[in-house]
Amino acid sequence: MGYTSRMYRRPANCQRDRKALIVYPKAPLNTKFGYISPVEPDASGERFIVSLAGCGGDYAPSTEEGFLEHAKQLARPELYEYLRTLTPIGDFSHFRFIENRRRRYEAMTNCPEGFMAVGDALCAVNPIYAQGISAIALELRVMEKCLAGGLDGIGRRYFKKVAKTIDVPWFITICEDFRYPHTKGKRPFFAGFLNAYTGKVLEASGASSAVWKTFLYVLHLVKYPAVLFSPHVVFAVIKTTLFRKEPLVTKQ
Ligand SMILES: Cc1cc2nc3c(=O)[nH]c(=O)nc-3n(C[C@H](O)[C@H](O)[C@H](O)COP(=O)(O)OP(=O)(O)OC[C@H]3O[C@@H](n4cnc5c(N)ncnc54)[C@H](O)[C@@H]3O)c2cc1C
What we know:
This protein is α+β, with helices and mostly antiparallel strands. Helices cover 38% and strands 16% of the residues.
C-alpha cells in the first residue's frame, strides 16, 4: 500500500459538522483509497491533509494532474469533486507499507527481565484500517493490569496476555488484505466468506448510520467482530442485497 499526501488550506466556508471524507477501496474491483481530514492549523489558518493510496504499485503520482486523476478514479466521486476546489499549501510526501508484521514475543523461552513492547514494535498492521492507535490503547490496558500484579515475570505474563488482544486486529487486517489481488501469505480459512459479508455490511452502512457505527466499533476495536452478525446488521445486509438498484462503485 502506498500513500501520497499533501496539505491544503481548509476553506472558511467548510461545514464544521463534517469531520472527514473517506472513500474506501472496493477491492478487487477498485483498490484506490482516499481521505480528507482536518489537522492542526498553522500560522496562516486551518488545514486539511489529503491522502490518496493505492496498492501493488498503483500509487497516486506527485503531480497536480496525476494526483487529481487518482482521486477521480476512487470508487466514489465526492472526494475528487471537493479536492478540485482546494488550494494546496505544501509538497507531496510518500509512505509505503509493504507487509503486516507481528513479533511473537510470547514464544520467547527466555524473556529478558522487565522487557515489554507496545505498538508497531509488537504488531504493525496495514494503516488503511486505522487500527494502530486503538490496538495500542488495548495493549496498554493489558500492561496496566499486568503491572498491578507486580514486576515478577512481567514480560512473560504481559506478552502472553497481549497476544490474545492483538489476535483481533491481526485477524481483521489479514482477512481484509486478501481482498487485494497483490496480497501474499497464508489466507485464513474464513477470509472469503467474511470479506464478502463485511463488504455487504459496508454497503448497508450507506443507508444506515446504526450499521455504520457498528462497523466502526469493530474496526476501532471497541467491539468484537461477532457484533457484525447481530440482527439489525444482518437485516440491513439482506435489505441492501435484495433492494439496492444503483451501482455503489465506479470501476477503475
Ligand atoms: C500512513 C499511516 C496512516 C495511519 N493511520 C492510522 C489511523 O488513522 N488510525 C490509527 O489508529 N492508526 C493509524 N496508523 C498507525 C499508527 O500511526 C501506528 O500504529 C502508531 O503510530 C504506532 O505507534 P508507535 O509508538 O508504536 O510507533 P511510531 O509512531 O512509529 O513511533 C516510533 C517512534 O520511535 C522513533 N524511533 C525509531 N527508531 C528509533 C531509535 N533507534 N532511536 C530513537 N527513536 C527511534 C521514530 O522516529 C518514531 O517517532 C497509521 C500509520 C500510517 C503509517
